Amino acid sequence: MIIPKESQLTPQQERELEGITKEFGIKLMKINGETRSIYLMIGDERQEEMLARIGGLEYIDRVDTVQQPYKLMARDSGLATHKVRIDGKVVGEGFTVIAGQCTIDPKNPNYFFETAQAVKEAGADCLRGGVWKPRTSPYAYQGDAKSLDILMEAKARTGLPVDTEVMDPEQLDIILKHDVDVLQVGTRNALNYGLLREIGKKINGRKTSVLLKRSMHMGKIEEFIMAAEYIVAQGNPNVMLCPRGTTPTMDGYRNHPDESIAPLLKERTWAPVIVDPSHSVGKASYVPFACLAAASYGADGIIVETHVAPRHGIGDDPKQAVTPDVLAKIIRDARAIHELQKRHLEHLIAAS
Ligand code: PEP
Ligand code: MN
Predict the structure, then answer these.
(1) I want to staple 21 with a disulfide (CB 3.0 to 4.6 A). Which of 13, 26, 265, 292 is the partner?
(2) Residue 12 and residue 53: Cα distance in Å, rounded?
(3) Could you say which ligand is closest to the alpha carbon of residue 184?
(4) Are β-strands 89-90 and 85-86 bridged in parallel, bridged antiparallel, or unpaired?
């Protein structure tokens, strides 16, 4: 809908506006309100170039689009019934739990092997293990390709599918030579469109899925969904959306917890929502509460940093990782809430 600044456009302005929309195959319908006239666009109004040209006309106040700018991620798109699977298991069925260390310590692989076995026994569906890490300081530990072998060894030992973060095309190529099930795109790369497109291209035709974190600086929900659209537009729709906390932070927490956007995401898109409470609250003792909140908000699952001996961990593990016994309780309770949610609250989530 096009809203002019003044109550009426002049015939010349109206002709100019019609000329632009016609170029893009859109018909205009004038609605004569009591105090002003507005114009409805009939056709596909999600055309960036056209919207920019109309928005730039000095006599136009604003353009409100009724349709969403995303086509494939929309809840009413042809992908509405698509199921994202990890190792054949549908994400969200039974509340999906991805757990494991923030960072694999290549000097102490046994911690990772023990963590892997313990998260399996706790009931997790997928094992996480950071190989390369985005660190605020260039002098901090950056990761080590050796950890990828440790991750694959843990996969072979436990039979669990694995998740690891990818930060650039070079790492992507290395990771894709291994049988990694979930590629994690971190909050810092969530707006790196070149990388998102490259990931989409390289996983096309594979079973690999992507866990796309929300950028901590992301404003509009549209921006998050459009980032996922970049990947999906390359042909593989196996994308999970991961709220992980935003800035400015909530005082005392690492970020501003954002599990509450789960219903909003589920209303707009078909993609499963996997909440990351570890990075949102940033402290092991708060993590269980945030996990249960995520289940209450209707998320399809959680990704939880877990370590058999957090104190001996590297990266975020000493601060954030829960121990496997705590993880087991989280899983038990989060799955109970998820069931309750399904039985009693499902009607609150927009019907498909
Ligand atoms: C992580 O999962 O360890 C991580 C670095 O997450 P984020 O990108 O959300 O900070
Ligand atoms: Mn981490």
Answers:
(1) 26
(2) 16
(3) 1
(4) antiparallel
